Amino acid sequence: MFRVAVIEDDAPTSNQLVSWILSARKDIVVDQWFTRDDAEAAVQREHYDLVVLDIELGRERHAGVAIINAINKRQQGTPVLVVSAMPAAIYRSIMKALDAWDYLQKTTFEEADFIDTLLEILRATRDRERAPSAAPAGDELSIDPLRQSTPLWHGQRVNLPLTAQRILAALYARRGEVVSYDELFQVVKSGRNRDNIRKHISTIRDAFREFDEAFDRIENIPMRGFRWTDPR
């Protein structure tokens, strides 16, 4: 049984999200909260497997940020999916810095996109509970599938959006082998073309180079795909 909180001040939108969640799985209990005060009290009181929230609640433009901070202070690893009308180009990077799982901008995604993301988060929650907590000894890169904050490179956090995280995981899982464009298309939801994959690869490289300027582990294999290479 999963427990999910939907924090959204617009009742029709809240009810729509709840209906999508319940249609995705029958073993989900959903709590609805409409104000910052009620939501903050709930996340302090309850253990949620997922929190779906809007950034703007009532007249508070950044109420959702305060709620995310309250969630993070509990250090329980609760994933947050942000669903907001705020411009994704501006707020996605902010939410990434706050360790949100993903950011969906209202009116730009469909029910299927929401449900795919929801189910992936819940599967990651289940898998993390079953998996050993420690990373394998000797691995330079440690990837926790649940939270974007937890890819670690030599112990340092690498912040990545969800799609880039999927691509990184696919490359690292098969390090030393070429992962073709066709195979990488299978881990992205949209933009299944080579230009888009190259943009995601660039995002990954830039994220690593923020603290490791010499990062060069992702090799471009012309006309084929990409390969994660370990040092010889």
Automatic annotation (TrEMBL):
SMART domains: REC, Trans_reg_C
Response regulatory domain ranges (all copies): 3-121
Transmembrane intervals: none
Domain of life: Bacteria
One Gene Ontology biological process: regulation of DNA-templated transcription
Residues where 4-aspartylphosphate is found: 54
UniProt GO molecular function: phosphorelay response regulator activity; transcription cis-regulatory region binding
Gene3D superfamilies (alphabetical): 3.40.50.2300, Winged helix-like DNA-binding domain superfamily/Winged helix DNA-binding domain
SUPFAM superfamilies, per database record: C-terminal effector domain of the bipartite response regulators, CheY-like
Record's keyword terms, sorted: DNA-binding, Phosphoprotein, Transcription, Transcription regulation, Two-component regulatory system
InterPro entries per record: CheY-like_superfamily, OmpR/PhoB-type_DNA-bd, Sig_transdc_resp-reg_C-effctor, Sig_transdc_resp-reg_receiver, WalR-like, WH-like_DNA-bd_sf
GO CC, alphabetical: cytosol; protein-DNA complex
PROSITE patterns per the UniProt record, alphabetical: RESPONSE_REGULATORY
Keyword hit for DNA-binding: yes
PANTHER family, A to Z: REGULATOR OF RPOS, TWO-COMPONENT RESPONSE REGULATOR ORR33
Name of the protein described by the UniProt record: DNA-binding response OmpR family regulator
Species name: Niveibacterium umoris
Phylogenetic placement of the source organism: Bacteria, Pseudomonadati, Pseudomonadota, Betaproteobacteria, Rhodocyclales
